[in-house]
Structures are given as structure tokens and as C-alpha cells.
Amino acid sequence: MHGTTSSYVIEPTAIPSIPVAGTDKMFPVHRVYCVGRNYAAHAVEMGHDPNKEPPFFFQKNPDNLNVSGEFPYPPASNDVHHEIEMVVALKSGGTDIPVERALDCVFGYGVGLDMTRRDLQGKAKDMGRPWEVGKAFEASAPCTPLVPASSIGHPTQGAIWLDVNGERKQTGDLNQMIWKVPEMISYLSGLFTLMPGDIILSGTPAGVGAVIRGDVLRGHIDGVGDLEVRVV
């Protein structure tokens, strides 16, 4: 049950949101789902066979989204990795959404990073524990403003890459996704009730690696946009 601001025992935090490119509007964020190992070459580099695994998902927190252009190097880690991803933003949702209707739920797209405390994630994996300590930390999802699908359509192919200090580190094509955007939405909707404001980070191509303070990360997705982030 919701009340007026004065009825809360503490001041509510602001609604996490992402700007919409070319407007003064904001996209309010409900949840952030991330699909794991969704490019075959990345699955292989992480030691897995992409032909034998169903899709799996983990979550970041809505306020992990970060449009500041800076990524503060997090505490408790000495091995933080970049993962360039296409951001998918939903304007509607539901349960058991058919694949053929899934794109009707999409508001737009962006370019994002799933920054990962790889050492903490590795320890959690070794102990059979959840990954959130490695994934869902402050400012761990830098991203661009969203571009509406009404302007760019629904990208299914095109280059996705990341440079670190001008050197190409990650490169792939959206058509290399094992699970395509409509399939992700449909599958997720069988596990959760998807809602307007939900975000999906759609997986990363091969070439993930560590960053240090002072690094400049430049990411690009054809037809979607460009992201620049400085590690501070």
C-alpha cells in the first residue's frame, strides 16, 4: 500500500531512471535483468559450452544504472572487468509472452556495460553462492540514454565493440546472440512477471578484461549509439 510522502518513516529514494535521447523525458526503471553467456565466443572464454546451456539470468539493482560518464572503481576488488552489452528497455510486460509478440513490449535500446568484480564473482561461483556481490554494486551499469524503437526499429545485426584507451578489446555482432531479444523476453516472462520499466542487459561478446583507474572505455553498437566512460 502506498501513502503520501509524509506517511513514510524515512524519505523515499528517487526513482532510478535513464534519459531518453533527444528529449527531456526520463525512463523509470523497475528491475534490471542480465542474461549470462549469450554470445558463444564469450561462453567459451568463460569455460562453458554454449550449445548445452539454456539461458540464465541474474539481476543488478535499478540504481546500479549510471549515466554519469564515470565509473568509480569499486571497493573490495582488484579485478574489475568490462562487459559491453545492448540495453533493452520494456514499455510493457506480462507473463508467458509469446516470442512473436515480445518486441511489442520494447520501448527502446541503449549501449551499456555490465561491470563485474570478477574476483568476487569467481569466489562466489567456487562456493556455490549467488553472484550479486560481483555484479550488483554501485554504478556497475554505465549506460547511454535510450533510443526509442520507434526511431531505430529493433536491431538484430550490426557491430558491437569496446575500446579501452583506444585499443579494441571486445568485438562481435548482434546476430551472434545465442538467445535473441524476443526469445529473452519470452523466456524471462515465464519466470517473472515483466513490468513496464524493466531493463534487460542482453549479454556480451568475447574479449572481456580488467580495467584500472584512468582507463577510458568507448563502446559502440551499430544503429544504437556510443558510450564513453572513464574509470575513476
Automatic annotation (TrEMBL):
UniProt key word Zinc: no
Keyword entries, A-Z: Isomerase, Metal-binding
Keyword presence, Hydrolase: no
Domain of life: Bacteria
Domain Fumarylacetoacetase-like C-terminal as annotated: residue spans: 32-232
Transmembrane segments: none
InterPro entries: Fumarylacetoacetase-like_C (IPR011234), Fumarylacetoacetase_C_sf (IPR036663)
GO molecular function terms noted in the UniProt entry: acetylpyruvate hydrolase activity; isomerase activity; metal ion binding
Protein's name according to its UniProt entry: 5-carboxymethyl-2-hydroxymuconate isomerase
Species for this entry: Mesorhizobium mediterraneum
